[in-house]
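Pilot study result, target chain (100 residues):
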Amino acid sequence: MKIYNNKSYDQPKRQYEEDVLVLEEEDEVYKIVLHNDDVNTFDFVIMCLMEICEHTLEQAEQCTILVHYKGKCTVKTGALEKLKPMHQALLDRGLSSEIV
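Predicted structure:
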């Protein structure tokens, strides 16, 4: 804040400098949701999540457990262009997933 002297000490004129935050429009966030099935083994699903979705071993294990007990789990989020090939690769390996 800058204060300019206008020879009136009772009501000085002030000029304010403000920082304006600009919100940038972000890409819409989509999710790959993996669904439970009675066909694929834990190890196979873990391997697929590590190879396709670039999960660490711990992430893949946790997602697989959630899918097993909850019926589904979000395994990846991001832009649609990035998720479409991952989703298709999961489907090609016989896993049940959807993009929401």
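One observation from the pilot: Strands lie at 2-4, 13-15, 30-35, 72-78, 96-99. A full batch analysis is planned for the follow-on phase.
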